[in-house]
Amino acid sequence: MTFAASDPRGIALSMSDAAFGYAGETRVRSLTLEVPEGAAVALIGPNGSGKSTLLRGVLGLAELTAGSIRVLGTSPDRARRGVGSLPQADTRDASLPVTLRQVVTMGLYRSRGALRPIGRAGRAAVDGSLDRVGLREFAGRRFGELSGGQQQRGILARALVANPRLLLLDEPFNGLDRENREALLHLVRELRDEGRTVLVSTHDLEIAQQACTHVLLLASGHRPGEPGHPAAFGPLDEALTLDAVQHAFQDTTVELDQHTVTTTRETEV
Ligand SMILES: Nc1ncnc2c1ncn2[C@@H]1O[C@H](COP(=O)(O)OP(=O)(O)OP(=O)(O)O)[C@@H](O)[C@H]1O
């Protein structure tokens, strides 16, 4: 199924001065943005700037400590059925004795409930999702025996199986070899072309340029422990400027348009 963008396009995600955090403590703040349906947003920022926290906020798993958020026209909790997510690789437990097919099938539980039989349509959705990431032949393998790149694609198949309108991918390119990276870039473009909305966090500006329509650059707080905040948001060619990158990546080296940019930390706050 595709979600062809109507004209004018719907808004998949909006935030108004939103802030997210844990136990009442804000970790990323001042988020005001509208993401049109069918956009692919690269979420870029240094370690600790709040990329994962923001993605968890969209899922309703991090606390909204200020402002407001609407996901697919409703609250994060109500929107969950329409949202697929790929958490960061280090948060997964690959030791469970389950097959790849079982892992992907878990992606259907949210929409059907774990106790209802999956049925023919569900099995077809699982097969389709495995085909999509090129892993159908590995369906019966134990998940923990697959390579890191294959596990990543397996989790992506789990995120896709319930036909989500919004996909949240947390650092999906980390640790991928060139072949897996190209396949994933291709898939992100394909999902976008189908009218789905994608938010993908990455440290890699090249990925943003190759697969995304929009960029949200996050900067760390001015002092250690302060929450991250946006340095820029908008269509890629407007928002991904050297100034914004320098603001976001203070005191680090990044690459933009094949140029290596070394930025220095501002002494003023
Ligand atoms: N579950 C949690 N409970 C409390 N604080 C947390 C939790 N998860 C993250 N944080 C804190 O929130 C801040 C932002 O972390 P977050 O993981 O969102 O950043 P990030 O930009 O995704 O970083 P990275 O690029 O390293 O993954 C950090 O100070 C981190 O210590």
Total discrete domains: 2
Biggest sheet record? 6 strands, mixed
Query: At the third CATH level, what is the topology name of the largest domain?
Result: Rossmann fold
What ligands does this structure carry?
Answer: adenosine-5'-triphosphate
Which percent range describes the beta-strand content? 25-35%
Distance between the termini: 49 Å
Number of helices: 9
CATH architecture of the largest domain: 3-Layer(aba) Sandwich
Mean pLDDT over the full residue set: 86
Rg, nearest Å: 19 Å
What would you note in describing this structure?
The chain is an alpha/beta fold. The protein folds into 2 domains: 1-72 and 165-269, P-loop containing nucleotide triphosphate hydrolases (Rossmann fold), CATH 3.40.50.300; 94-163, no CATH class. It contains 9 helices and 11 strands. The strands form 3 sheets. Strands 5-6-7-3-8-9 form a 6-stranded mixed sheet, with helices on both faces. Strands 2-1-4 form a 3-stranded antiparallel sheet. Residues 1-8 and 263-269 have low confidence and may be disordered.
